[in-house]
Amino acid sequence: MPPGGDSQFAHLQCPLGHEKKSLASIVVACPLCYVNLDARQKQIEEEFKEAFHLPILYFTQFLGLAFGLKTDEVGLDKHFVDPLPLLNKIK
Q1: What is the pLDDT of residues 32-50, one digit of tens each?
Q2: Domain locations in the chain?
Q3: In 3D, which of 15, 83, 21 has the Cα closest to residue 48?
Q4: DSSP character at residue 85
Q5: In whole angstroms, what is the distance from residue 48 CA to residue 38 CA?
Q6: CATH class as words, domain 10-90
Q7: DSSP reduced 3-state for 27
Q8: Could you tell me where the DSSP H helices lie in the chain?
Q9: Which of 5, 50, 62, 73 is an S-S bond match for 69, by CB 3.0 to 4.6 Å?
Q10: Of residues 15 and 46, more confidently modeled
Q11: Separation of alpha carbons 62 and 24, rounded Å
């Protein structure tokens, strides 16, 4: 279903699928955006029959990592889409 269709997730398909081949993650500042893109990503994948597997990170998690906090201290173990493979690539 194209963006703007009748699906309740139509507005989320574009951010998740945009430049899918080169996009490694999305970092957000909005708590609602975080929940919609991370927690509901599986539903979106089922709706559009497309796999994204795109980690969604909250900007404060990146700040915590930059200041030396461990991944579990910034809550990366709580994500629905595991961000650790991405973070291991950039270490």
Answers
A1: 888 888 988 888 888 878 8
A2: 10-90
A3: 15
A4: H
A5: 16
A6: alpha beta
A7: strand
A8: 10-17, 31-34, 41-48, 59-66, 84-90
A9: 73
A10: 46
A11: 14
Residue 15 confidence (pLDDT): 55
Of 73, 28, 76, nearest to 84 by C-alpha is 76
Number of C-beta neighbours around residue 64 at 10 A: 17
52 Cβ contact partners less than 8 Å away, ≥ 6 residues apart? 16, 17, 20, 41, 44, 45, 81
Q: What is the mean pLDDT of residues 52-65?
A: 90
Q: What angle do CA 70, 88, 21 make, to 5 degrees?
A: 130
Q: What is the mean pLDDT of residues 80-85?
A: 92
Q: What tokens were used for 35?
A: 């929940």
Confidence band of 2 (pLDDT split at 50, 70, 90):
very low
> Residue 45 is encoded by which pair of tokens?
């994948």
Instruction: Give exposure, 25-49, as e/b (b: 16+ Cβ within 10 Å).
Output: ebebeeeeebebbbebbeebbebbe
